[in-house]
Structures are given as structure tokens and as C-alpha cells.
Amino acid sequence: MAKSNKEPGGNEGNTEAAPSLNFLQAIIEEDVKNKKFDGRVQTRFPPEPNGYLHIGHAKSICLNFGLAARYGGKCNLRFDDTNPTKEDVEYVDSIKEDVRWLGFDWEDRQFFASDYFEQLYEWAVKLIKAGKAYVCDLTADQIREYRGTLTAPGKDSPYRHRTSAENLDLFQRMRAGEFPDGSRTLRAKIDMASPNLNMRDPVMYRILHAEHHRTGNKWCVYATYDWAHGQSDSVEKITHSICTLEFENHRPLYDWYIEALGIYHPQQIEFARLNLTYTVLSKRRLIQLVTEGHVQGWSDPRMPTISGFRRRGYTPEAIRSFCERIGVSKFNGIIDMSWLEDSLREDLNKRAPRVLAVLRPVRVVLDNYPEGQTEELEAINNPEDPAAGSRKVPFSRELYIEQDDFREDPPKDFFRLAPGREVRLRWAYFIKCVSAVKDPMTGEVVEIHCTYDPATRGGNAPDGRKVKGTIHWVSAPQSVVAEVRLYDHLFTKPDPDDVPEGSDYRANLNPNSLTVLKSCRVEPSLGAAAPGSRYQFERQGYFCVDARDSKPQALVFNRTVSLRDTWAKIEKKKK
Prior knowledge:
Elements: H1 23-33, E1 42-45, H2 55-70, E2 74-79, H3 89-101, E3 110-112, H4 117-129, E4 133-136, H5 140-147, H6 164-176, E5 185-188, E6 203-207, E7 221-223, H7 225-235, E8 240-244, H8 251-261, E9 267-271, H9 283-291, H10 306-312, H11 316-326, H12 337-351, E10 354-355, E11 357-358, E12 361-366, E13 374-380, E14 390-396, E15 398-402, E16 422-425, E17 430-438, E18 445-453, E19 470-471, E20 474-475, E21 480-487, E22 514-522, E23 534-537, E24 541-545, E25 555-561, H13 564-574
Parallel strand pairs: 1-2, 2-3, 8-9, 10-23, 12-18, 16-19, 21-25
Antiparallel strand pairs: 4-5, 5-6, 6-7, 11-22, 12-15, 13-14, 15-20, 16-17, 17-18, 21-22, 23-24, 24-25
Helix pairs in contact: 2-11, 7-8, 11-12
């Protein structure tokens, strides 16, 4: 994505330089300038409906829809539904929801590879008649054996020299369902000695007696991705077919098919896919995490799926900003998860209302506060957004504070509540600790007795005295009980594949990736919080009302992301 560069120096009159172009933009701008494709720009996002989209797909979505918008073009949504055994309408619906949630609209341009099954079949017949495709009886294992290696050429299939008439008859009978699964394939006749293994007579069709989510049992031969992809692009008059880097070696095959057919020829261009630390983006692995029960479904907030990020409380703006920030490259690399989290913090800092919430509560009693009295104090909703205004929070004789905000024997650098020490309550008063009550069985502090200074309402002392610590709180009688789920990285190592020999990435699953706190207390304004609402719990981080499990009388919050300073302390503690 474009990045803004400013001219160096401080002379008056400096203007902002033209944004630099990434390599994809440079290619497209040159094509538009030279009237290639008549100056049109038509892209597509082509997901397989065999799983939920993840953050890597978000980069592709932003890229394809973004390039089309930048150059006044259009972007199609096309489902590559050529493998009926793994596809489901559930995945189609989830993909559409995710693309819309990210802020993009394909308008009336929703397509499926299955829309073109008849056309693809006719084009395959054309190649057979031209002597450029043949029916092969080798098994999948034999095809791999005959293909050769990177250093040794392949050898011809014994069925490579069948006549066009025989191949046409067999292919028609394949379609008619005469043969069992895996018994025959249709292969392109290219070059078994090619240095590119993808050009060594690739499979175009395989026999698969399976019901398709759109075409039912009409077909029992299904196209491979390489055969369906380029031709689908051609049908839709795509100009720039943007793929991830692993398809670079497939481009000669993409071009060969189109040129052999003599049809409209899009341009395939590759970019580096997104890789993130502390997670996996292989769809096979994500399916494994779901089916083996390591997570609670595709929308588990620990998953790197778009639905998981949405449920955790991420915003589409933050994800789009992240995709813009990391840019587009031709070289594979790994992006640190902190880049994504920083994009989220920047966005939520501007929009999330501040509220008071105590996650691990301990009771505080203000001995000199009038019993039965409740007052309302003014609290700012968001200091980054003056238009957000303020709210009233109740204050009473009994409060809850965080257990960690009190120490009987505090270390030197502890500036919160301790015996004889005074602290500020956020938006409220100065309080001073008098004594603590312990559980006789466990020795844990269960109640703290303090006094408050009524002259310090609002958190300031008229005599000018200062306190080093400010802590958050909620009024005990009016507080609302809530469940809070604290999420950490799904894996313990930045590279989940960093495992001993004989293990796999699952050995690095984080057993503490989810901590559930059942008896948290939040301010009463959150009692009616709508599912999906996002807040900053002061001093705690950003949280979201869980869209699936939260109910009006049983609130559930997910921690979206910690505050920067909190995360730094966590990392320091780990080290």
C-alpha cells in the first residue's frame, strides 16, 4: 500500500512528496498508462470455501479490493469450489460476512468456479481434440513417481500416446460416471522433461463421485485449481490476477493453458503472503486445531481467523490499517504480532469508551464514609475524544479494588495501597489504608479498611499534597458481576515450528492461552452493554462484550488487547 513521504528539511513551503508505489501499483499504473486491457483494472478475490478466512486472507482482500478502488476498477468475489468433499455452504456464508465486515463490497459480482464447469469441460475437450490433453490410468502415487524430481526428468505415462478419439471417448465416459474414483485422470500433454515440475503433464480433472454444494450430483469429474483458476479469470475478464508467492512456479502453466486455448489472457502477478509470529496460517493446521479441540471452533478469539478477531473485539479499521502498514513485498518474511496489536491499540484508543472494571476484586470499606450514602462522580468517557462526553459513576462506603493494588509489605517500587499509605481513586477521592482483615484459614486479605478525605473529591487535594499511586475501583453495591476471559498468544514461541525432532507445531500450544475470571466486577453502566461493544477497562486493557456467550444477566467480556505498558510488564516478568 502507498506510504506517505515528506520532504526533508524545515524550509517554509515544503510540500508532501507523492506517495511511493509498491511494485503492484507500479505495474498497474504502467498498464493503465499504456492502455493494456484498454486501461481497465479488474481484480478478484478467489477463496476456497473449505474453511474460514484468516488474517492472511484479510491482506489479500484489502489488496485486491483496494487496488480496484484506487484505479477506478472492480473486484469480483469468486469461490473456487472445485473440491466438493471439503466445501460447505457454511464456509461460503462466513467468507461473505468477513469480506463485508472488513468494509468491502463486490456488488453484483459474486461468482463460483462451478458457474463455469460446463465451459471448462468444453475447453478440456478442445485440448483433447488438439492433442494437448490425454486420459491417464496411472494412480496418484504412480503419477508422482513418473513425474521425476528437481534434478531428474520425468518419464512419459504409458497412456500418453492414446489417440484423440480414444481420449475423447474415455473423458466423456469419465463424466458419465462409468469409472470409480481415482481410476483415471485427464492430464495436459506438455513436457515431462521440463525443469518446472508443474509443467510435467499436470492433472486437469480427477474422478470424484461426491455431491457438490451447488451442482449436486451433476458432476463426477472435477477440475484442479490450476485448470480452473486461469480460465475462470479469463471468463471474468480479469486484468491482474494477484496471487501469493507460492503460485509463482505455477504461472507458466497458467499462461500455457490460456495460450493453448487461444482465449483472453489476464496477467498473473505474485506477492508474498502474510506470516505472523505466535500463530499458524495454514488452513490445514487451522482445521486441525478446530477438529482436535485445541480451540473452541473457528471463531475462538485465539484463532487468527477474521471471525475470531471480530469476536475478540478487533475492528475492521485496525486490520485494514495493519495491512496498509506492512505493505506489499515480493519476498517472504514474518511480521511480528505486535504490529497488528499496535494498529488495534491506535484505533481503539480513539474510539473505545473508558470504564471502571475490577478483575480480581478485594473489598474496601471506608470507615469514615456515611453508611447508606451513595454519590455520583463525574468520569470522562474518552480523553482522546472530547465529543464522547462524560458519565456518572456511583461511589459508596464499600468498594472493590484489584487484589494486586494492595500489599501488606510493599516492595520499594510499589506505589499503590499499603498500610499507612495514601492513594488516589480514579475520578474520586484520596484514601488511606488503616488495616486489613485476613481469612484465618488461608491468610489471604479479604477486606481492607481505609479512610477517605472528603476534601479531595475529583482526585485533587486542595492543600497541594501529592500521591504517587492512582488505582481504579467500583462501588460494591451497584457493581455488576461479569465473566472476563483473558487471552494470550495461542503458541508459546514466535515460530510454532521451532520444536524438537519428532514433534510438530502442536507441541508449542500455549496451555495458558485462555484464563477465565468468573467473579469480576464492572461499573453499572456496563449492565446493558450490547454484544460486540468495545471498551477500555482503565489500567487493564481493551475488552469486548462476547458476541456469542454474553447475556444481559450474565455478561462475558473478552480481552481484546492489553495496554502497551501492561504488556511490557508481562513480557518483563516472563523474562
